[in-house]
Amino acid sequence: MPRTQGGESVLSRAVRIVEAFGPGDTAITVTEIARRSGLHIATASRLVEELSSFGWLQRDEDRKVRIGVRMWEVVSRASPTLSLREAAMPVMEDLHAIVGQHIQLGVMEGDEVLFVERLTAPGAVINYTRVAGRLPLHASSSGLLLLAYAPLAQQERIISRPLEVFTGQTISSPSQLRSALAEVRRQGYALLAGHIHPDATGVAVPVRDPAGRVVAALAIIVPNDDTARSRIAVLQAASGAVSRAMLYPAPPLP
């Protein structure tokens, strides 16, 4: 692998370019890419041009840079969550028609929950998540659900760290988090009212692989009122359908 005078490989610098794009970024300037990646602007500009020539990045008419279609195509094909998403989407669409609010599918990625699919509707309650967006494990219903079934060492690592607070309801102490994780394991679902936004309640249930391991969280985001608990049964039925779809995948189309 060719290396620069500083010893860093060209590939490493290219990765820094790509990782300069945050979850909410659609298009950013080369100057901002250079700032976020820590590269000289001339180096960043050269690498952006080279990556654009392969379709990994693309330039807009105003010279801003966005992720290229070629990168999206390859990543979508290679994603380890592809079979999970294929199993979940038909069920999520049915659930969305019933609930009429946000439906989302999250997986654990490091010490955060990563949302790999999301359906929404006009007039739905506020929701901070997006596809490819992340939230702390302790603060979201999906994250808390996944953390409750995670290895003990990971639970202890999260418990020992400062916990980011979004509202007055957000879990903010080790004792609160331990109690919440135990409650999730006892009842089989996570319900967090007003933990991310005062107006929203998140409810999440586990999706299991054929071996019975929890591999994802299926969640709904609904208004923060007394009706949230009435959605648990239909959400659990939906997660069971996703788990069965993973066990018996549909045959490929002819």
What are the main properties of this structure?
single chain; 254 residues; alpha+beta; 6-stranded antiparallel β-sheet; 8 strands; 41% helix; 19% strand
Characterise this structure.
- With 254 residues, this protein is an alpha+beta fold.
- The chain is 41% helix and 19% strand.
- It has 9 helices and 8 strands.
- It has helices at 10-18, 30-37, 41-53, 69-78, 82-99, 141-148, 152-159, 174-187, 232-247; strands at residues 57-59, 65-67, 102-109, 112-119, 134-136, 190-193, 200-208, 214-223.
- The strands form 2 sheets. It has a 6-stranded antiparallel beta sheet, with helices on both faces.
- Strand 1 and strand 2 (65-67) form a beta hairpin.
- Helix 5 (82-99) packs antiparallel against helix 9.
- The longest helix has 18 residues, at 82-99.
- The protein starts with 9 loop residues before the first helix and ends in a 7-residue tail after the last helix.
Give the secondary structure arrangement, pairings included.
Layout: H1 10-18, H2 30-37, H3 41-53, E1 57-59, E2 65-67, H4 69-78, H5 82-99, E3 102-109, E4 112-119, E5 134-136, H6 141-148, H7 152-159, H8 174-187, E6 190-193, E7 200-208, E8 214-223, H9 232-247
Antiparallel strand pairs: 1-2, 3-4, 3-8, 4-5, 6-7, 7-8
Helix pairs in contact: 2-3, 5-9, 6-8
